[in-house]
Amino acid sequence: MDKNHLTKPFWFANVWTFFPDLGIDDLEINYLKWRALRSSFALMAHPTLLMKVLDQEIVQTIPRDLTGICIAFHYGPYRMLPRYLIAAGYRIAVVASVEVIKRDSESVYNELLINDLPKDTLKYIDATRPTVLRSIVSAVKDRRIVLLYLDADEGVRKIAAKNHQALIKVLIAQKQLYFHSNSARLAYKFGIPISFMLMDRDDIDGRWKVSITNKLVFKKNEPLKGYLKRFKMKFAVVLNRIMGQYWMAWENWPMLHLYQPDLAQTNHSTSNDPVWVMPICMRQRQFFFDVKNKRFFEIKSD
Q: How deeply is 108 buried, as exposed, middle or buried, from its count of CB atoms within 10 A (0-12, 13-18, 19+)?
């Protein structure tokens, strides 16, 4: 199946899981907002002079003593975060998938050239390599800020096959999302400070500003369990801020992978009967998608 065909149904299904009170019309309107926001944010990725696109007032608010790892999300105009860090004078390393590196690296390095900045100002770390954690430690030792986008992409089947202790469960609107704790465990082991960083929408004027939490630093003789608890508390505050503020600007709604009803936990009010289906056509095959139970039913002619 082509994932592009699945964006809308999975967006509807995942959003409805967290906001069950939304009606069909509300979901459709918010989906159109989400799609428009994603397109507008993507346009900001084109190479340009930083002075033209960056708010200099925001640049001045970025702390000059950042170190270690900055955890961010694919929320709002998140592609601006590396630019703001560079404008604030930092050398950075961005942890990304091979697909993202192939897609973005040429335009990013062209932008460095346009702005007369050394190509070494930004480097990528391939998140799929077995040596990714070692590369992060090396980048920190090289006095780079490591920008890591952390997303909830753990499906129920994946979680069942893994050690639950390696995952962080965050409660949102009486539901839960799972995130990898590798970055926190790495920071604990090597004493690397962690901050959470995101483009934050101002409730008053609607401007997107850079928001950075206070550093989470290792305390002497602190056990790993205590450190992870503090990490989870900061993490939950940031993520719930996103959801409570302008949740349509979170890019990852269709990619939460919560569409495995055979293993998903259900409550007493959940019905296995289809309550709302969407017609979908993929590769010349027709389906109905049960939005509530997240199941496909193929339509076959006799």
A: buried
